[in-house]
Amino acid sequence: MGKPLMLRDEDDKRIEALKAKLGAPTKIAVVRAGLDLLEHEALRAARIKRSHRAVHLVAAESRRVNAEFRSHSRLKRT
What we know:
By secondary structure, the protein is mainly α. Helix content is 76%, strand content 0%. It contains two helices and no strands. α1 (9-22) packs across α2 (27-71). The longest helix is centred in the middle third of the chain and has 45 residues, at 27-71. 1% of the residues are buried.
C-alpha cells in the first residue's frame, strides 16, 4: 500500500507543471524521476569523493616515481 505525502500547494503546482513538460502519466512518475536523478547525483558525488581520496593516498608515491623517471630521461630539461 502507498504512503500518503503531505505537499504544499506550490509543490503540487510544480509537480503538475513538470508532469505536463515531461509528458509523465502521473504525479508519482514525476516524483520517481526526481528520486532517480537525486540517487544518481548522490552516487556520482560518492564516486568523486572516493576518487579524490585515492588521489591523496597515492600522491606522494606518484611524485617519487615521476621524479625517478625524470632523472633517467634522455630529454633533459633546462
